[in-house]
Specification:
Layout: H1 8-18, H2 26-38, H3 68-77, H4 80-87, E1 93-98, E2 102-106, H5 122-127, E3 130-131, E4 145-146, H6 147-151
Antiparallel strand pairs: 1-2, 3-4
Helix pairs in contact: 2-3
């Protein structure tokens, strides 16, 4: 839902305003983790004097990897209401029975077959693209089979 187009905050606001149902994906989760880190109330432990951190968190883009800089920039722009709304998005959205389809659930990534919905790993649900057919474990290098093929 976010981090793919030019107006992530507008997408969040639109979804909130129309009462849309959604699932949390890997991008939403990463931005929420950064948001939580940026807004954590830290109590310094007694000890040697530490270097003063920059108030504006002006770290160089090169110090982040694989989109972390963009996630951090977006997290800084989130309002408390937007972050709260994203946080309430489930990783598995149960739609219910749909005529001709039986029970329908929506996930961003994938599901491991043979594992109940309650026991699915949230990281896999948000990130899985392929699965190892022998172990039925998500493939780390995307070198497995598309997980939907296992359910077909």
């Amino acid at each position: 839902m976010i981090s793919k187009g030019p107006d992530s905050l507008g997408v969040i606001d639109l979804a909130r305003n129309i009462g849309a149902s959604c699932v949390r994906g890997n991008h939403e989760d990463r931005v929420l983790l950064v948001y939580a880190e940026l807004n954590a109330k830290r109590v310094p432990l007694p000890g040697p004097e530490e270097p003063v951190l920059l108030e504006n968190d002006e770290m160089e883009e090169e110090s982040f990897s694989h989109g972390d800089y963009r996630d951090r920039a977006l997290a800084k722009k989130l309002s408390h209401q937007q972050a709260s709304w994203l946080k309430q998005c489930p990783v598995i959205l149960k739609i219910g029975n749909v005529k001709g389809m039986n029970e329908v659930v929506v996930v961003h990534g994938g599901l491991v077959p043979g594992i109940s919905l309650a026991k699915q790993d949230p990281f896999s649900v948000m990130n899985m693209r392929s699965i190892d057919l022998e172990t039925h474990v998500p493939s780390e290098n995307r070198n497995g089979v598309n997980w939907t093929k296992v359910f077909s």
